Amino acid sequence: MTRFCARALKRCGMTNREIKAVFGANVKERRRFSNLSQAELAKKVGVSANAVSDIETGKKFIGGDTLGALAEALGIEAYELFKPKTVLPDDREGFIARLSGEIQDTLARFDAGK
Predict the structure, then answer these.
(1) Containing H/E element for 57?
(2) Are the C-beta atoms of residues 46 and 69 closer than 8 Å to each other?
(3) Domain holding 14: CATH number?
(4) What is the Cα–Cα distance from 4 to 103, expressed in whole angstroms?
(5) Number of structural domains, the chain?
(6) What per-residue confidence (pLDDT) applies to 9?
(7) What pTM did the predictor assign?
(8) Would you say residue 6 has pLDDT above 50?
(9) ∠33-34-40 over CA atoms, to 5°?
(10) Could you give the 3-state DSSP secondary structure of residue 62?
């Protein structure tokens, strides 16, 4: 699923670096909101605290299994970790609408392929 969401974001004009930055910032924000340390989140997900740090800083990306565990540990849907919050083009509303549509279409194709 990670690959599918990343493809949807690329179709909306985001680079790999931007995707990792958005994803990492969302993980960090949600982790803090949940009052979890990196070590606590890592334990819930089954990765190292260093891996969580690398994800949050955009140095590392994760596979589908880890994405599901991460979303579950944070109490959210996986697609929410891919939503840009601050780094958006000038046409913010149009970009969000296109991105939401792309992600939903991609997730539907992913679910249909299971």
Answers:
(1) none
(2) yes
(3) 1.10.260.40
(4) 8
(5) 1
(6) 67
(7) 0.69
(8) yes
(9) 130
(10) coil
Exposed/middle/buried for 114, CB within 10 Å: 0-12, 13-18, 19+?
exposed
Helical residues (DSSP H) of the chain, grouped into ranges: 2-11, 16-33, 38-45, 49-56, 64-74, 92-112
In the numeric block, the tokens 């880890």 are attached to: 66
pLDDT category at 88 given cuts 50, 70, 90 is very low
Check if the beta carbon of residue 81 is closer than 8 Å to that of residue 30: yes
For residue 74, what are its two tokens?
A: 């944070």
Q: 92 pLDDT band (50/70/90 cuts)?
A: low
- The Cα–Cα gap between 53 and 50 comes to 5
Tokens of residue 68, six digits: 């599901």
68-80 burial by CB neighbour count: b if 16+ within 10 A, else e? ebbbebbeeebbe
79 closest CA partner among 42, 26, 41: 26
**Domain that includes residue 73, residue range:** 2-112
Tokens of 90: 């000038």
